[in-house]
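From the pipeline queue, job 12 of 40. The input is one protein chain; the requested action is below.

Action: predict structure.
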Amino acid sequence: MIDRRGKPAGQTIVFLHGATASRTMWAPQMAVLASDFDVVAFDLPGHGARMDEPFSLEGASQVVLETLDEAGIPSAVLVGLSLGGYVALAVAASHPDRVDGIVLSGATASYRGWGGFSTKVYGVLFPLLGNRLREKSDASLRKIAPAEFVDEILSQPSSFAGGGQALRDIPGRDYRRMASDYPGPMLLLNGERDTVNRKEEADFLKHRPGTRVEMVADGGHACSLSQWKAFSEAIRRFAAIDIRTN
């Protein structure tokens, strides 16, 4: 299933969700950016309407390309949060002609060494603790997400089985190379309190000079929800200015 709103003739922005989430997590951005852009969100394998499909980075990248084809979208700005950011990098590295620009949020970490190992451990635990984690996740989301969008966001259940597959699959890949292989504009948009990803921004920039960096004040890993207005405006600036000047 694909959600599409906004101006058909405008710049297309495709939103790629994080692990355990679904396309509905982008409800705030879809609502406020539809006035100026052609905005699109859909589920990755293992999540949402594709919950029964196995997740792999290659499979998710193929779903992005197939969805673009089915929707008649030649190219788009890809906005990825966490897992969605790594999927965006994989698509851009293999098919740069389909990507007008990339916004990475919570997707700066390289997932090598201890970080990669611990992520795989979480990937094993997620399906085993799914029901317990789902209750905590939904409660946390109700605290940080804008009230007017909470019901829409929670209309799709979190997928801890698919999220677990993703966490086991993501580590060990060379995301720095993927980033350097993509020649188009790129924005790192991390929350101020997302220390894991912010501390790796400098290393990311060594491999990918010229990448623009913005910080979402008082935001954490889920800054697209907790600070949704600032996050959305950063995307608006990127799609309206950076894309047009490249």
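Job complete. The two ends are 32 Å apart (CA to CA).
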